[in-house]
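Hi there,

I know you've been waiting on this one. I reran it after we fixed the sequence typo, so this is the corrected version. Both the input and the resulting structure follow.
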Amino acid sequence: MDAQETSTLATKRLNLRGLLESDAPQILAIRSNSEVNKYLDRPNDTTIEQALAFIRKIEGIVNSGSGYYWGITQKGEKGLIGTVCYWNLQPADNKAEIGYELNPVYQGLGYMQEAVSAVLEVGFNKLGFELITACPQEGNQSSIKLLQKKCFSLAGDFTEEETGSKYLDFRLAKADYLANHP
């Protein structure tokens, strides 16, 4: 699959595209937000330089084929409102983990459901994934509800050794996805 084919996606209300250095202020707003970071076990970013370093890191991951990453914008707007990605790729098993974050100003409006739907379609139908996983932290009810709406099933849980945080292991197999998205 040519990365160019998946570099931009569009939904009814959103455009999904690669990150740009000009996204640094919005990336900083997301990555410095304690509400967003509450369930991510990461420290709040505090500088534009950290946001730029993150964008460059993601660019390297995408360019190396080690992951897929989209910035989410509202149609007709340039400002980033969130991100969605595939990471932890396991090509031998046609498996990837999905991750996402959304500026709290835009939460509760169905934007992430829309973005995740587009990314799942690409994952199963263009990237050839047979299994997509997601691992929200226990207590992250918004993420858990989103995954349940997208037909993910809870397969178990695990505790992160470094932080002691408990994570839930959600999975969506291609056959289950196709059964619900003919």
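Quick highlight: The mean pLDDT is 93.

Best,
R. S.
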